[in-house]
Every structure is written in C-alpha cells, then in structure tokens.
Amino acid sequence: MSSQNFDSVPTVTIIGAGPCGCAFAADLASRGKDVMLYAHPDHRGGTDMIEKNGGWLNADGEISGRYQIKTTSDLYLAIRHSSFLVTTVPSYGQDTILTLLSQFDLRKHTLVINVGNFFYLSARQKVNAHCILETDISPYAVRITGDTVFVKGCKKSLAIWAEPPTTQVDRLDPQAELGLRRQVESIFSQKLNWCTNLLEVGLNNVNPVVHCPAVLMNAGWIEATKGDFFFYAQGMSPSVSRVTEKLDLERLAIAHAYGLEITPITAYMNQNYSNPRQYSDYHDFASGSVVHNKTKSSPSSLNHRYLLEDILYGLVPWYELGMKVGLTSPTIRALIEMAQIVSGFDYFENGRTLTAAGLGDATKEQVLNALGGPVEKAPVHAAFPDSPIGNSIESHAPLQTAQVVG
C-alpha cells in the first residue's frame, strides 16, 4: 500500500444494501466520497429504491439529504470501484459474501467488516485481503421507510480491530500501519477505538445483550401484535431489564477472564448516544431513550436477526469462550436453549464456534494469540453503574483478479 495520501479515501464500496448499508452510503456521500453500493442479486435491499429514484438515495434524521449512489449486483465491478470494501451484511449472510470474495485477488484491498461478530474466525484461511478489520457494532440506529433511509441516531464511537500483523499478506511497518488507520478513520464519521485483540471487539458488541432477552421474553407480544409495540420503552420492562443486566454481567466476566475490562451496558448507552441525561440503570435507559423510541422497532416475528444473528454469532461464541476459562454463564446458556426451543433450530451446532475456526482444543493463551495476543494494558472504561443486579492465511489461486480503478 502506498505510504502517501493516508488521509484521503475518495472511493468506498459498501457490500450489503440493507438499512445499515444505505445509511453508511449516505454518510460517506455526505462527506464527498464516491460510493458504490453492492447488493447480492438475491438480496437487493435498498438498491431497487435507489434505482427507482434515478440513482439517488433519500436520507432523513441524523443524516439528511439526497445523495447520488452507484449501485451494482456485480461483485467484480464493486471490487474494482475501490480498494476499501466495507461489508454491512448481517452475520448470517457473511459466509455467502466470504465465499464470493474468496474468488478474487484482494491483496490490494482492505476489508472492513461492520458488524464483525468474530468474522475473522471464518475468514482467516479463506481470503487474501491486504488487511481484515472488524468493528463491534453498527454505526447507526436506522430503518428504511418508503423510499427513505431514516437514521434515528449515530453512535459516537466504535471499537475496531485489525488482524494480527503476522498473518497479513504484506506485514505493515509502523508508518504504514498508522497510515492505514488514518485511512480507515476517514471512512467512519465515528471515533474509532483501536483494539489489540479481536476478543475485545467481539465482546464489546452490545447487540446480543440488548436484543436477545427482550425478544424471547416478549415472544407472545411479538407473535400477537406482529411487533406493534415500542421494543424499548414497552418491551424492556423492569423484569426484562434485570435479565438484560444479568446477561451483561456474564459478558463482562468472560471479558475479565481474558484480561479485558469492557464497558457495562448502561454506561455504553450513556457514552455512545446524545442523550438528554445520564441513565441510572438499563430500564431507565430503555424507557427514557429518545433515540431508541423514535420508532417502535420491534421485530414482527421471532424469525429475526435479533435471534438469528445475535445468538448464532454473539451468544454462542461468548458461551464457548466462557467455558474455556471455567465460566458456565447460566443466563447466556438459558437464552440460547430457550431460543432453540422457540425456533426449532440448533444454535450450538450452527453458530460461529471456536471448533469451526480450528480453535476448539486451543487453550486460553492459544485463543488470545490467534486473535491478536494478550492484552498487555487494558483500556480505561467507565466504572460499573449502580444496578439492581448486583494461523496464517492460505495462499490460493483466485478465479478472478480485479484491479482497482484509478
């Protein structure tokens, strides 16, 4: 990668045209970047809406305006458009995208996975990207309404991780690594908190904490009303919030066992949104958050990414990581088992497991080393709030070689 123009990324390709992908495209275009939005032919997302508008994307809310966006369902063209590829597909669609990307020579491309959910565990031996990075959570609270992407809120910061230097195709020297970070930072409008180990990013994703208890404990209401209620203010009652906080304590305990001190859920919400006040506990946040109660935002069925994504790619790897260090995580396990009964689907068998990544028999130290090495100095995070709860990439011959235009 060139050591010049580190702060300038004029073109970006977004892979995934759902609400997050469209919001990301609008955000990038609002800052003058040339954006191409790729949609899988079987999952067109917002591309039909954009094409019907003559190539324009309407955005409202925190990002407001009308932006010209290139669209395609040809991944070859999408890869040619930019050396920076940002995927926004749900985690259960990542394997499909990974299979498609593995056909290309990506040695000159930087691949940013948003949201990562331990994507690297699947990708570490399948793609030859110059660098793979993962973020912990979506930058936006967003919905598509009619012909407009409505951005309810933008997070202030994201955790991000880059694969260990020893596994990069071309090892970066310190100056090149700093330059790459600056380029990636120019893609995001949020502050990026750089992490040294993938576990910090994967365990910092609060989506499973927020979504899973609320969906499972409101199953009757979801099925009866098709989601016609305020998911936060009404669905996250004091009892649901207590389960949420207990789940969060188990997440924090797993992180602590690996030498990480991550931010508790209520402190996270206080830090990452422009709230009118500081919330004292999780129920206080859920009932009082203006951003999260602008729309009802409840899933209309239990066949929803709040379970399919957040359990398969969140709770399952968390549980396995905990078991490896002797933590039984009873709340996490109970939620997974409840979801299996509700869905008739084996989440343990089909989740993103350490075994599938070749780390099933690895020790705690081996897991840490495979995902970035031990964390020598834990980051400083907010204190616990008061609460009622007390290996190398395989070389392969690409089927196609895409050169970046320009």
From TrEMBL:
Domain Glycerol-3-phosphate dehydrogenase NAD-dependent N-terminal: 12-113
GO molecular function (one): NAD binding
Domain of life per record: Eukaryota
Transmembrane segments: none
SUPFAM superfamilies reported in the protein's UniProt record: 6-phosphogluconate dehydrogenase C-terminal domain-like, NAD(P)-binding Rossmann-fold domains
Keywords for this protein: Oxidoreductase
Annotated InterPro entries: 6-PGluconate_DH-like_C_sf, 6PGD_dom2, G3P_DH_NAD-dep_N, NAD(P)-bd_dom_sf, Opine/Lysopine_DH, Opine_DH
Pfam family of the protein (one): NAD_Gly3P_dh_N
Reaction equation(s) it catalyzes: sn-glycerol 3-phosphate + NAD(+) = dihydroxyacetone phosphate + NADH + H(+)
GO biological process: one example: glycerol-3-phosphate catabolic process
Residues covered by the Opine dehydrogenase domain: 194-342
Name recorded for this polypeptide: Opine dehydrogenase domain-containing protein
UniProt source species: Penicillium salamii
Source species taxonomy: Eukaryota, Fungi, Dikarya, Ascomycota, Pezizomycotina
